[in-house]
Task: inverse folding
């Protein structure tokens, strides 16, 4: 039987899908498809819930902008009191444009360019997270040439298995991220020699879409030990950064609540007596968003039914790249229709271009609208222009009204960087 994704932000009223108080059909009448729609209330509730769960310790949330870097989305989190975790010069640019204060920005990335480090120092961001020995020395050198003291955290790879998709697992020793504990200790112990660095934190991020607590507990315990060793030796770090990675429900996976997350970690981090930092992305955004697409054709061969829709891997890459599951459901329910099992596929010239496989769904017709659920994180940010497709529009719903927060790309936009060279 056709399953509908459980959500209090995307619900059916009179068999029509709504985002908060606005009918999805009303939005796409104006914007066309494919279009991303986000619920502002979801952003607010998730952010408050996270904050509340950790009220027993001094903590700060740095929203991981990579999960959804639309300026209005970043701005929403800034207004909710969050800082921003940025992974590149481009995300730094976006965060500043959205109104983030540099002292509430963390600069991440396993491969920062000299320019990115310089920019971070020029802007005076809260801290730069170093991910290798060479990077620590380079930050020291650049800071020295700028007559600055760089606030630096070291990202430690705790070598735990986050039990998630291999592409989004980052905390195993075989992964490219961070440095091992011994190297971290060695670097922290060079504090006196590194005249233009002030070590302010220890950091981890072990992966994404993690649905069990044990990898977090194991990793936080390991890093807390390091933190306490350093403290004994006289190096007082002021931040302990747990990163992001909390898994959310896409299908029927069992996840943990943010309260359970806090319950598991609070006893460990309380002992550190420092500020605890989090960098959640997906938790705050994934189930805040849907991608709405129109059925272009229905077809059938000896093996399968296909729903050919106007959204593609260029709009939502996750199914193609990770085999990720996203619920797909009709915008208008019609119980009089029978159900079929179908693949939902896009117009791009690749067999890897699919949004869903073998789903039970009500029979569709040309022109029907479908909602691809849980698309608020790593959706639009991973969109591309392959096949010279224009990136979709983005909409933010607030209560009974909605606003366009990114217009659909134009054809002029597609050739903007090239036409002067013709
Ligand atoms: N902090 C760091 C250093 C990160 O690398 C990431 C995500 C986060 C925080 C936020 O993690 P989250 O809370 O969202 O799990 N494109 C993939 C996800 C890649 C995650 C990369 N890093 C996907 O679509 O599943």
Result:
């Amino acid at each position: 039987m056709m399953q509908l994704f459980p959500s209090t932000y995307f619900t059916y009223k009179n068999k029509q899908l709504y985002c908060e108080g606005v009918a999805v059909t009303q939005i796409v009448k104006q914007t066309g498809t494919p279009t991303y729609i986000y619920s502002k209330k979801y952003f607010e509730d998730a952010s408050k819930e996270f904050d509340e769960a950790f009220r027993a310790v001094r903590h700060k949330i740095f929203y991981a902008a990579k999960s959804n870097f639309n300026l209005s989305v970043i701005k929403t989190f800034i207004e909710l009191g969050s800082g921003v975790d940025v992974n590149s010069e481009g995300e730094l640019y976006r965060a500043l444009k959205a109104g983030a204060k540099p002292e509430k920005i963390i600069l991440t990335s396993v491969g920062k360019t000299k320019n990115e480090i310089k920019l971070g120092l020029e802007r005076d961001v809260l801290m730069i997270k170093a991910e290798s020995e060479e990077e620590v020395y380079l930050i020291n050198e650049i800071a020295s040439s700028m007559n600055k003291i760089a606030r630096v955290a070291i990202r430690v790879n705790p070598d735990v298995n986050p039990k998630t998709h291999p592409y989004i697992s980052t905390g195993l020793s075989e992964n490219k991220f961070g440095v091992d504990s011994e190297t971290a200790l060695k670097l922290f112990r060079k504090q006196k020699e590194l005249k233009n660095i002030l070590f302010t934190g220890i950091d981890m991020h072990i992966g994404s879409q993690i649905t069990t607590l044990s990898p977090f507990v194991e990793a936080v315990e390991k890093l807390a030990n390091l933190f306490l060793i350093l403290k004994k030796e006289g190096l007082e770090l002021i931040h302990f950064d747990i990163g992001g990675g909390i898994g959310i429900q896409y299908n029927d996976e069992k996840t943990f609540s943010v309260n359970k997350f806090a319950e598991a970690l609070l006893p460990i981090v309380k002992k550190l007596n420092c500020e605890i930092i989090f960098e959640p992305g997906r938790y705050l955004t994934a189930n805040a968003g849907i991608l709405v697409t129109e059925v272009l054709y229905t077809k059938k061969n000896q093996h399968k039914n296909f729903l050919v829709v106007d959204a593609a891997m260029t709009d939502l890459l996750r199914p193609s790249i990770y085999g990720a599951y996203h619920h797909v459901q009709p915008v208008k329910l019609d119980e009089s229709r029978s159900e079929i099992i179908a693949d939902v596929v896009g117009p791009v010239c690749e067999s890897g271009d699919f949004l869903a496989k073998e789903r039970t769904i009500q029979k569709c017709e040309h022109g029907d609208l479908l909602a691809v659920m849980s698309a608020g994180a790593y959706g639009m940010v991973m969109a591309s222009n392959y096949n010279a497709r224009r990136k979709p529009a983005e909409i933010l719903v607030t209560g009974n009204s909605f606003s366009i927060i990114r217009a659909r790309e134009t054809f002029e936009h597609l050739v903007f960087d090239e036409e002067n060279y013709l």
Remarks:
- The mean pLDDT is 97.
- The pocket of LLP is lined by residues 64, 66-67, 85, 108, 168, 205, 208-209, 243-246, 279-283, 318, 322, 377-378 (CB under 6 Å).
- The domain at 10-39+286-415 is CATH 2.40.37.10 (Lyase, Ornithine Decarboxylase; Chain A, domain 1).
